[in-house]
Amino acid sequence: MPDTTTAAKAHRKAPLTTPTGLGDNARRDITAALNALVADVFALYLKTKNFHWHMSGPHFRDYHLLLDEHGDQIFEMTDVLAERARKLGGVTLHSIGEISRLQRIQDNDADFVTPEDMLSELREDNEALIASMRSTHDICEEENDVATASLLENYIDEAERRAWFLFESTRKM
Predict the structure, then answer these.
(1) Dihedral sign, CA of 95, 98, 100, 102?
(2) DSSP 167
């Protein structure tokens, strides 16, 4: 006799659904917000590396190293955020195409960008990421997902530090 329990039926419909204390709406909303963040983080990572690779000028070494450090820090977020979505029973990004559809951080494919414009653009992008993380944090608070909220608090702090360094690097005295 086949197993017709609700749990068995749910597992057949969504084999990647992980049991969690969060309701279906919370799982859906938080996972969607996390996936958008993961897309933004990948976009910001690639843009940061793009500018790192194409840096030039009298401050080359300092900016090149700064952006390398920032890129490493940003990349570390991707796996943690994606795995958090999975822990909640959601699915996460599957492809570059999905990242492209979800990202809110705009690409920069210009042949040349001045160092000051690179740093200013990355500051703006980090500030946009901060705003998106705060919005996701609000969703987590509404749904009592303290673990995801806690992760985001640390990432917000890191992004604020990146924005601060980028601001100070472009400030005119």
Answers:
(1) negative
(2) H
Judge whether 38 and 93 are in contact, CB under 8 Å. Answer: yes
pTM of the predicted structure, to 2 decimals: 0.89
Q: What is the pLDDT of residues 126-135, one digit of tens each?
A: 999 999 999 9
- The answer to whether 98 and 39 are in contact (CB under 8 A) is yes
Q: Which of 46, 53, 108, 41 is nearest to 79 (CA)?
A: 41
Which pair of structure tokens corresponds to residue 90?
Answer: 């959601």
Q: Which two tokens stand for residue 137?
A: 């944090």
Greatest distance between any 2 Cα atoms in the chain: 78
Read off the tokens for 56: 């030039």
Residue range 86-104: mean pLDDT, rounded: 96
Candidates 41, 15, 155, 158; CA nearest to 93 is: 41
How many helices and strands, by DSSP H and E, does the chain display? 6, 0
> At 11, is the pLDDT very low, low, confident or very high (cuts 50, 70, 90)?
very low
| Distance from C-alpha of 173 to C-alpha of 113, rounded to nearest angstrom | 22
